[in-house]
């Protein structure tokens, strides 16, 4: 059994999609981020960055020893699960395909994901008077990344050719383009790729997981300092409190 620490966000969907696709038995543990579940000592022991998704694998296999394995950060979670199951990942012996996988995993977690996350903040959660510059800045970066993906999908149905964890990582932030104030009209290959992935039953189950708990704008930077506007000092204070 795998414990999945999860909230219904694009990053949470990544891990849920992989678990649904592989058929691994898992238990979703809903993280109420607006209430600070991510700052509990128990969760910080699993995910020191105070972010979900994270997993605890209670049966990792003989190579890992007897203790459960914890994994945080979405890219690491999906790579761990892919290597565990041998699914949705090139074999380790195919060095060129493995190299391409790593390039696109790092692209997603270092470019598409962070830029889309900031766009989401300035589109949906920042104070009204502070939105305009940030929205325009990150919309440009979001579109730039859509262009990168559009070019990659020329002659391919999926990022690596076959459906893989690279697609699972990139899909959620393309899936919510409209709520981000963006459009896929100029990116027809991305739109078709998005539609192919959205149609997969495992993806639909993951997106529906705890759907009623989504933050639809009710928790914003101007009314929830637990979820937004966290300073380095406040995080250090929480960490110190957890050690005491």
TrEMBL record:
Superkingdom of origin: Bacteria
Domain GST C-terminal residues, every copy: 94-218
Domain GST N-terminal: 1-89
Pfam family, one: GST_C
InterPro entries named among the record's database cross-references: Glutathione-S-Trfase_C-like (IPR010987), Glutathione-S-Trfase_C_sf (IPR036282), Glutathione_S-Trfase (IPR040079), Glutathione_S-Trfase_N (IPR004045), GST_C (IPR004046), Thioredoxin-like_sf (IPR036249)
Family membership: Belongs to the GST superfamily.
Annotated protein name in UniProt: Glutathione binding-like protein
Lineage: Bacteria, Pseudomonadati, Pseudomonadota, Alphaproteobacteria, Rhodobacterales
